[in-house]
Amino acid sequence: MDVLGFYPMWYVPMVGSGIVIALIASFHVMASHTSVGAAVLLAYLATKAYRENQPQIYDYIKKYLLGLLVFSYVSGSITGPGIWFSATVVNPRGISALIHNFVWVWATEWVWFVVEVTFVYILYYTLGKIDRKSWTRLTWIFAVASWATMDVIVGILSFMLSPGHEKWFTTGSILDAFYNKNYFPHLLERTAFMFAIAGTVGLAIAALMKKDLPEKVYKEIVRTLSYWGIGGVVFGLMFFVWYMATLPERSYVVLDKVIPIYLKLPILIIIPIVLAHFVFAAVRPQAVRFWMAYPLYALIFFMGVYPEEKVREGIRKPYVAGEFVWVNQIIARDVPAKGIQSQVPIIDQKGLLTLNPFVPEGLKKINPQNEIMAGKTIAILECSGCHNVTGSVGLRPFGQKFAGMTDRNVVYSFLTSYLRNNHPPYMPKLTGTDEEVRALSAYIAYLISNGGSVSAKIEVPNTSSEAKKEVQP
Ligand code: HEC
Fold it and tell me: What pTM value is reported for the model?
């Protein structure tokens, strides 16, 4: 019997499994961008302290380093593997596609990361114990290693959006995958904005140390951070425009039609606020306050980083990796270079329920007794990456999207005309046999007839030969 290499499905009712990754990832981005930005800023400050012989600047650097050690490196190292762990559970085939391309890139990432983490300790514990010139050199190794960790990941992230050119599908080359069209603007945009993030928390730390530092030194630190912050925002916006110009066609549709205003608007509001704060700090360093800078740093998370990560994941739809794996993990097109073939034809011919080895035996052949459950299974397998398929609230809930459609024939003709023959650019094509589409229609009509909400459980109806089996979602 034919099977396709699917994995067990993790269905998170209501909010969807993607949100689990998005939350962990956003914390990670916040911690990592703070530390990468800070690594460069601190190397610059250390150089300044050395050249201009201003030893008090080292006190500030030491405090910032301790903050990084305690906050960024602990939370960054927990959430980093957390992203890959959750992503592996949510979308094993997407991760598998990435590993098959980028295994050595990840190995490189790991080497840079080891250097980075080692150096934050080395720098903190050798400050004042070795000569300043050598120490300053070490800060630049730290800065380069930190930035390189981001550089490497950005190549993978932008490939997830799109290889950017047809070439990769035939060459399969790792360099074509890594240096995709979106890579440079994405990297430069993050590089610029991270100075704004690190600068904002840097101002909070400076404000805390105002009393301990000579006025002149304090002002210089604040001005330096502010100039870097202003530069970060201004260049970040410029690179953002370039970034937008490198998106694939479908992403504009998603941005325009799908991404809600409550994700776009906060980003547009927080950027000028951060910029204004830097300008204010540059003009009146003495007026910088911890209670302003630190909450602003937190706001950057809620209004900038979290929505930005959600939008970035959104504009990738309907794919999860390289424009050949859909969010529902079905391989959507041929990749000749990798010997990968589209699975759409075989699923249309033989059916997803038969081909997915984790579908319980009692649901593989559709009959009047198991039809509704088979339909629910298809909804979970094909649609739950982007929809709450068992309720009326939360993530694009089916209860709302199909409101009023209590007749299975109405659902069927809607699904075939809208999702099978002419699917919108943000959704995968509805794949499977005609019988499966009918089962999905029956389930959806049943869901709507039940008030738009049913249990997420998959129950395999009692068939003559088999005892009742239950599969927990
Ligand atoms: C890759 C993510 C993704 C998958 C998988 C997906 N959808 Fe959608 N779906 C969307 C998006 C995005 C929208 C746009 C509306 C919104 O954001 O609320 C949408 C909207 C819809 C709508 C409302 C019509 C419209 O275009 O706005 C229906 C009905 C729907 N989906 C059904 C399904 C069904 C049935 C499946 C499974 C066979 C499915 N979707 C799979 C992302 C997806």
Answer: 0.93
Q: What tokens were used for 284?
A: 């009146």
Determine phi and psi for 391, rounding to 5 degrees.
Answer: -150, -175
The stretch 377-382 carries a mean pLDDT of 97
DSSP helix/strand/coil, 471? strand
C-alpha closest to that of 39 among 77, 65, 73 = 65
Closest ligand 1 atom to the C-alpha of 379?
A: 37
**Gap from CA of 65 to ligand 1 centroid (Å):** 46
CA of 258 to the centre of ligand 1 (A): 10
> Where are the alpha helices (H) located in 162-289, listed in sequence order?
167-171, 174-178, 183-208, 215-245, 249-253, 261-283
Has residue 331 got a pLDDT over 90? yes
CA of 457 to the centre of ligand 1 (A): 21
Give residues with Cβ within 8 angstroms of 447, minimum separation 6.
390, 398, 399, 402, 453, 454
Q: Between β-strands 469-471 and 458-460, what pairing exists: parallel, antiparallel or unpaired?
A: antiparallel
Distance in Å, CA 242 to ligand 1 centroid: 29
Residues with CB under 6 A from ligand 1: 258, 317-318, 327-328, 382-383, 385-387, 396, 401-402, 419, 424, 426-428, 430
Protein residue whose Cα sits closest to atom 7 of ligand 1:
427
| Residue whose CA lies nearest to ligand 1 atom number 18 | 396
pLDDT in tens, 176-220: 999 999 999 999 999 999 999 999 999 999 999 999 999 999 999
Among 386, 388, 389, the mutation site with the greatest number of ligand 1 atoms within 8 A of its Cβ is 386
Which residue in this structure is represented by tokens 């209860």? 399
In the predicted structure, residue 467 carries a pLDDT above the cut 50 = no
Q: What is the pLDDT of residues 419-460, one digit of tens each?
A: 998 899 999 999 999 999 999 999 999 999 999 999 999 998
pLDDT tens, 271-297? 999 999 999 999 999 999 999 999 999
The CA distances from residue 249 to 246, 331, 337, in Å, are 9, 20, 24
Centre of ligand 1 from the C-alpha of residue 450, in Å: 21
Instruction: Give the Å distance between the CA of 387 and the centre of ligand 1.
Output: 7
Q: Is 370 exposed, middle or buried (0-12, 13-18, 19+ CB in 10 A)?
A: buried
Ligand 1: residue of 11, 258, 348, 387 to mutate (most ligand atoms within 8 A of CB) is 387
The mean of the pLDDT values for the chain is: 94
- What is 327-384 written as a DSSP string? TTS-B-S-BGGGTB--SHHHHHHH-HHHH-TTS-GGGTS--TTTHHHHHHHHIIIIIT
